[in-house]
Design brief:
- By secondary structure, this protein is of the alpha+beta class.
- The protein folds into three domains: about 15-105; about 115-215, Immunoglobulin-like (Sandwich), CATH 2.60.40.420; about 235-325, Cupredoxins -  blue copper proteins (Immunoglobulin-like), CATH 2.60.40.
- It has helices spanning about 5-15, 30-65, 75-105, 215-225, 235-250, 290-300, 315-325, and strands spanning about 115-120, 125-130, 135-140, 140-145, 150-155, 160-165, 170-175, 180-185, 190-195, 210-215, 280, 285.
- It has a five-stranded mixed sheet with strand order 3-2-1-5-8, with no helix packed on it. A five-stranded mixed sheet has the order 4-10-9-6-7.
- It is elongated.
């Protein structure tokens, strides 16, 4: 019997642990996220009241003497309690839920920014659009947005269904091949908010994350101006060697580094890769060591991704390429 309290405590603590952390939907930092929490609370309260009523009636039916519970068999009790009450209650919750969900995608004001996001195997291709809806610049696995302003996301996928989810900023929406879904998010304050693919999409689904970096409007504009610039020229002979090795080993076949002959579109845009917090879709922190490890052993670190491992490079070559990547701020 002593095992029961321990099991209950473990169950409760594990449930509460899901209400904390960087991906907690219970710590909203935007209007859409707050709407999700409010909707969840009302649904939970409604479900709890219905459950309490059902348990109470069940207890009455089991424990009360037969002569005192004949009213339970009355036709009016059956009709009102078994048909009218659940139909009215569930309909009200459904209408309310659909209304809240609709309000999160309904256009309330012109977005301050439009971003196209494509979920791919297993990373995020991100394209910022200018004021005319034309491509402005590309990035990958890290989204910067201004605080206090609605941002519109155009979501799609070229391969399988993914799902775009930033728990602290809003709900989730599927990314479906051949279809573009529109989504809006807004951050109340500056910070880094972790996002995740919320639809199983293959063997590396668990390692398909991204960061949303919310900046004050002035900071965002400075970041956007910097992103529009081509890659910085190598400042040292070692970095110049790294760029030459990057191009000589065919990296430019899959990756873009604006300002160089690298014009590949298969993989992420690396023009400013050194300025990102993480690499490999939120899998590793971004530094020279992890960049070198990823270049040489990408298939070991994240099996099945579309980048081959360049394990034929010697140590100096590997460090030179990694240093060049790190210099692209």
């Amino acid at each position: 019997m002593r095992l029961a309290p321990a099991i209950l405590a473990a169950f409760v603590s594990s449930g509460l642990a899901g209400c904390e952390g960087m991906q907690s939907a219970w710590a909203p930092e935007g209007p859409n996220a707050q709407a999700v929490v409010t909707l969840g609370n009302i649904m939970f309260i409604g479900a709890a009241l219905i459950l309490a009523l059902v348990i109470g009636l069940t207890a009455v039916a089991i424990l009360m003497p037969p002569e005192r519970r004949r009213w339970l068999a009355d036709q009016r009790v059956v009709v009102w309690g078994g048909i009218v009450f659940p139909v009215v209650t569930l309909t009200a919750l459904l209408v309310y839920g659909l209304g809240v969900a609709g309000s999160m995608v309904r256009i309330k004001a012109e977005p301050a920014l439009t971003i196209e996001v494509s979920g791919e195997r297993w990373w995020w291709r991100i394209r910022y659009l200018d004021e005319n809806g034309e491509p402005d610049f590309f990035t990958a696995n890290e989204i910067h947005i201004p605080t206090g302003q609605p941002v519109e996301f155009l979501l799609t996928s070229p391969d399988v269904i993914h799902s775009f989810w930033v728990p602290k900023l809003g709900g989730k929406l599927d990314m479906i091949p051949g279809r573009t879904n529109t989504f809006r998010l807004e951050a109340d304050r500056a910070g880094v908010y972790r996002g995740q693919c919320a639809e199983y999409c293959g063997k590396q689904h668990a390692l398909m994350a991204f960061d949303v970096v919310a900046l004050e409007p002035a900071g965002f504009e400075a970041w956007r101006a910097q992103q529009r610039e081509p890659a910085a020229e190598p400042a040292t002979a070692f970095l110049n060697q790294g760029r030459d090795l990057f191009l000589a080993n065919g990296c430019g076949t899959c990756h873009v580094v604006r300002g160089t002959p690298a014009e590949g579109m298969l993989g992420p845009d690396l023009t400013h890769v050194g300025g990102r917090r993480m690499i490999a879709a939120g899998t590793f922190p971004n530094n020279v060591g992890t960049l070198a490890g990823w270049i040489s052993s990408s298939q070991h670190l994240k099996p099945g991704n579309l980048m081959p491992s360049f394990d034929a490079l010697d140590g100096i070559e590997l460090r030179a390429i990694a240093a060049y990547m790190d210099s692209l701020k």
